[in-house]
Amino acid sequence: MEIDKILSYLSYPSKNSETQPEIAGTEIPKSGKLYKMLSNIFDKSYIECKTPIIFMPEEGKKQNNECRNDIITFIKKNSIPNGRNIAQRLQSITSKISGMGLLFLILAKMDKKVRLLISRFPADQGIMVEPKSKNLKVEFVEQVFLKNANSYKSVVYEGSSFTSDFWIGNAVDKQTNHGLKVVANYWIRDFLLSDFQTTSKQGSKNLAVALRGALKNTDDMSVKSEITGSALLSKNLTNKNISIYKYFDQFNLSEKAKKVISQQLKSTRLLNAQFQFDYSEFSKHLSYKSLELDNGAMLTATIDTFDKCFIQEQIEQDKILFQTKGKIIDERLRKVK
Amino acid sequence: MNIELKYKKRYQQYLKAISVKLENHFNDNLSGIKRIDRICARAKSVDSFIKKAQNLEDGKKKYSDPINQIQDQIGVRIITFFNEDVERVAATIENYYRKIESKDKIPESESEFGYIGKHYILLLPDDVINDEFDKDNIPTFFELQIKTLFQHAWSEANHDLDYKPVGVGELKSEFKRKIAFTAAQAWGADQIFNDLYKEINSN
Q1: Per-residue pLDDT tens over the stretch A157-190
Q2: How far is CA A114 from the centre of its chain?
Q3: Which of A5, A40, B29, B150 has the most CB within a 10 Å radius?
Q4: Taking a C-beta distance cutoff of 8 angstroms, is the pair A34, A106 a contact?
């Protein structure tokens, strides 16, 4: 898809400010070093932007989201004032911690399809004299941009229908010093008025069901042990933003374990889906650890109490003595599988 | 390719398969919730789609790009026993699915009786779309309706009357009044059943 227009704006940190500074903006010419670098970022967005997000609807209104409205207004008429509305939105939620930023709106078109990349680069305040006019000089943009060309947050939207498209997009944070939670709050929730496409409960359930399936479908004891170990520690992920890929990294799972877990998913897209981890939902679907011994015994306990319920002692190279003590509260016969 | 052929292809290749998976998705997420009579998902038939695509609004075509604008190409319906089950189911739905719209469809004035139902436009979950499907040819959203048994029964019968024989024209005033009367009875039955359920279970 060919780039049609690039606009750039300089925004100030003005969260909770009564007066909003005027935002200077300019169109970037479609030639030169700056254009080449921005084209490169645009091309990379197909691979880089992989956190699926969705605009959250305003309660009580029919399919409405103010940020999406600003974006659609800009796509319909890509003027500097229409782009400034998007920059204004960003400025009004930017705190001094995030600081000044250069915002780029990169629009590409092919037939009826439109692709819009919105990227924010930090602007080093030390290097510049604040421009006071509404116009931003391209040389100035280039100077600021080159200082931070590899450190940015982006989101990309693509579609052709203003009814059903431009509701979902894909985001990325290349500012490595910020965790995903920071991106989620500043970039995704506050600026874009969006959230992850996968809800907290659905994502946590997908993960638990995949782990449960992997435990059931592998005979490899080391893989079983890795998965059980990670599940036991998963309580520490409560309220953290993760994906199944990130879960693999978090617990440093082996390639074998990753493969078995991935095979349980109904779609490979679930691997990248970000969500806020919900331990109560997770444990609803993966709550028991069960061991079957070669003498026919089956030992089962909730995953977080298993090691307390069964005292284990290695008595031979491949034999373990399990001991447990308690009052019988239930006894039943079950059909053998 | 004309719109009918385009939709027919989409219907055959993708929508039917997705609706089967979507029904299973809902059954899984709502398992254990009591007093759900049924959950069913369907892909909108080619005839219904074409009919809807030709709808008029203020004398003009309502949809300029029906393939991308009609959001109920896949529809899910959940039928519950009582009024308060609708809210309970809705709360669970919002935990597992992303919405872009939710609406309580009720008659405009308090003295009217007619269609009642809770409607959502929800994002299609990733795991109902096969990896090999062409995502550009799959709708992003689907419609969910949650209704009680009486709301469902009334809307089905009323919908059938919409397909009146050619030449009948606008329904007579008396017919409209009779339809409103049946809607009032369905509404009353829901109120009483819900009250009975609450009273019996509060003891």
Answers
A1: 999 888 889 999 999 988 755 545 555 688 999 9
A2: 23
A3: B150
A4: no
